[in-house]
Amino acid sequence: MSAKEIVNELTNLGDLYDTSFMRESSYDNLRELLSKFYNNSYDITDLMESLTPRCSDILLECSFLNKKRKCTDIFSLGKTHNGFCCTFNYVIEPDDMPKFTEVPEPVIYLVGTASFYYGLSVMMVPQLDDYAYTLLPTTGWKVMIFDPYGYPDLSSGSVSEVLVPPLTEEFVQLQVVGSHGTDTIRMHSVEKRGCIFPDEYESNYTSYSTNACIVACRVEHIWAKCKCRPFFYPRQGFTEKSRRTCTIEDIHCLTKYYEKQYNIVPYARINLDSDFENENVIRCNNCYPECIDMSYLIQISETDIKSSYFNVTLYPNTNVKDQSILHIYFSDPETGFLRKDVHYRWYEYLSFIGGTYGLFVGFSIVSVVEIIYFITSYLLETFLPPAAKKPSRKNTTRSIYWNEFLSHSRVNVERPAIRY
């Protein structure tokens, strides 16, 4: 095979990224080429990583917190649903890199000031001569913004994407909105409150997130149908389901079930039509949102850059050919939090009902208590036998007259005279 034919065959490996359509031609030539070159022993994940452009080649200049940084020091190669990408502030699970005996502790970069100059700025080269296989019919970069502790899966709805074409300076303002569940809702079931606390999920290899749960559910489905795991998904532990990575042999199987992979019902409370539910969707087990979560809202503005020596912001006197500049920064130093709490407690319902009845019909909770009291008293008097009367004591009290309290004067009685 000529060098051009070899390059064309290697391009077919891009079908492992997107299995949404079935190719008419087979992969026999590519399979034979890889078998001969690697002597029937190769890892598809390592192969796809080696074909990925190096971060050091596409990231020319970087600055963070108003300081110039070496791009390879703050960026690393990580897995996303788009394959291998240059990632910043992304916590990679240690068991996702089994080829390393010692995995360094991931570094989380914190921002204390909301300012354009204290954000992340990157000058990027599009490498327009190396577009062998593209996922989008355009040139430039796809920038994904997501939580650093979760796998960036677009179907979960927690990933924001920005397209940066060549010769543009892109400004991406971030606004953070947090949600916090109070301890009051813990007494209710997960189904009723509709979210999961971090300490309610037990796992030896990852913390709970909606992304991780949905990805695990999808990987479970792919394993059940095709007995493999796509290379761009994290291993999620050294289990049976993480042993074999999907190769070109599995592309037809992945294509067959591609549509179903992205029609996911995250938890049982969502009811669908029975036919649609059984044939075209994957039902996951309790992939509820997190009770404590952070979401990132973005606002984008851009300006064009001319091809010449140009005073680009933060990078003066730059010889611009086809580069682009990306600025990502927080627009507000404060974060708004939404509290998840019980809407009404029992005594609030009682007060609301009593106030409504009192306003419209002159009826109150006190009236209910009085009615219950009188009904109970009536029933007791009606159905209970009368109690036996005890003999009363004889009244020995005599009448007292007022004259008895007055002093009596002595009366002198004169004897009649006796005359002889």
From TrEMBL:
Q: Which Gene3D superfamilies match?
A: Acid-sensing ion channels like domains, YojJ-like
Q: State one Pfam family annotation.
A: ASC
Instruction: Keyword check for Transmembrane, yes or no.
Output: yes
Q: Keywords assigned by UniProt?
A: Ion channel, Ion transport, Membrane, Sodium, Sodium channel, Sodium transport, Transmembrane, Transmembrane helix, Transport
Question: Any transmembrane segments, and where?
Answer: 349-375
InterPro entries assigned to the protein according to its UniProt record, in alphabetical order: ENaC (IPR001873)
Q: Please give, as recorded in its UniProt entry, the membrane topology of this protein.
A: Multi-pass membrane protein
Q: Which GO terms describe its molecular function?
A: ligand-gated sodium channel activity
GO cellular component terms, alphabetically, are: plasma membrane
- Localization per Swiss-Prot or TrEMBL: Membrane
Q: Which family does it belong to?
A: Belongs to the amiloride-sensitive sodium channel (TC 1.A.6) family.
Q: What is this protein called?
A: Sodium channel protein Nach
Originating species:
Habropoda laboriosa
Q: What is the lineage of its organism?
A: Eukaryota, Metazoa, Ecdysozoa, Arthropoda, Hexapoda
